[in-house]
């Protein structure tokens, strides 16, 4: 089954896909390795938030996704 990673907003363009599935378990280091370098760079810079199982993580490094979980990469929000 694995972990489903969703790329939202401009991250979809950086990733070149809407979503992907990776093997579980998935932690922070595994996530960085699973996405392309441009997306990983955005994650490391702190501009991108991470939602796991429907909740935004205050500390992205605490990611511990299991089979069937969904991880959404949330781009920075701009006002207007």
TrEMBL record:
Pfam families: ThiS
InterPro entries noted in UniProt: Beta-grasp_dom_sf, Mopterin_synth/thiamin_S_b, ThiS/MoaD-like
Name of the featured protein: MoaD/ThiS family protein
Protein's organism: Qipengyuania citrea
UniProt lineage: Bacteria, Pseudomonadati, Pseudomonadota, Alphaproteobacteria, Sphingomonadales
């Amino acid at each position: 089954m694995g972990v489903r990673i969703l790329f939202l907003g401009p991250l979809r363009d950086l990733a070149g896909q809407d979503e992907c599935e990776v093997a579980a378990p998935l932690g922070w280091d595994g996530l960085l390795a699973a996405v392309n370098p441009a997306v990983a760079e955005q994650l490391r810079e702190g501009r991108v938030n991470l939602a796991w199982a429907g909740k935004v993580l205050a500390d992205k490094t605490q990611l511990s996704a299991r089979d069937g979980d969904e991880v959404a990469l949330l781009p920075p929000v701009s006002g207007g």
